[in-house]
Amino acid sequence: GIIRETGHDLEGVNVAGKILVFLTGKGSTTGSWQFYAAWKRGNAPKGMICVKAEGIVGVSAIITRIPLVHELEKNPLEVIKTGDFVKINADEGVIEIGR
Fold first, then answer.
1. What does pTM read for this prediction?
2. From the CB of residue 48, how many other CB atoms can be counted at a distance below 10 Å?
3. H or E stretch including 34?
């Protein structure tokens, strides 16, 4: 659950059991496998909110059944702050933010 990408804004942050808010995914098809492996170890986020999901992120959410929402009316990176309480309703594509 720890972000290990050198130079990343979240480098060293543990996202396990939290709602992960991010711009989009990147990488190759092994990204979904790595996400699944993290999920199996209990190290995956509890939910994901991204500006624009691509295939790797979508498949990761599907195979782990982790709620994912994207393409919201407002940019989640601008309205959600670290420490906010966030509830995801992926079936309806809605999030609730509490502070």
1. 0.89
2. 26
3. helix 30-40
For 35, list phi and psi in degrees, rounded to 5. -65, -45
Each residue's pLDDT tens digit in the chain (99 positions)? Answer: 888 889 988 899 999 999 999 999 887 878 899 999 999 999 999 999 999 999 999 999 999 999 999 999 999 999 999 889 999 999 999 999 987
Based on the number of CB atoms within 10 Å of its own CB, is 90 exposed (0-12), middle (13-18) or buried (19 or more)? Answer: middle
Catalytic residues: 28
* Full DSSP string of 8-23: -TTTT-B-TTSEEEES
Mention every residue, 6+ apart, whose C-beta is less than 8 A from residue 43: 1, 2, 16
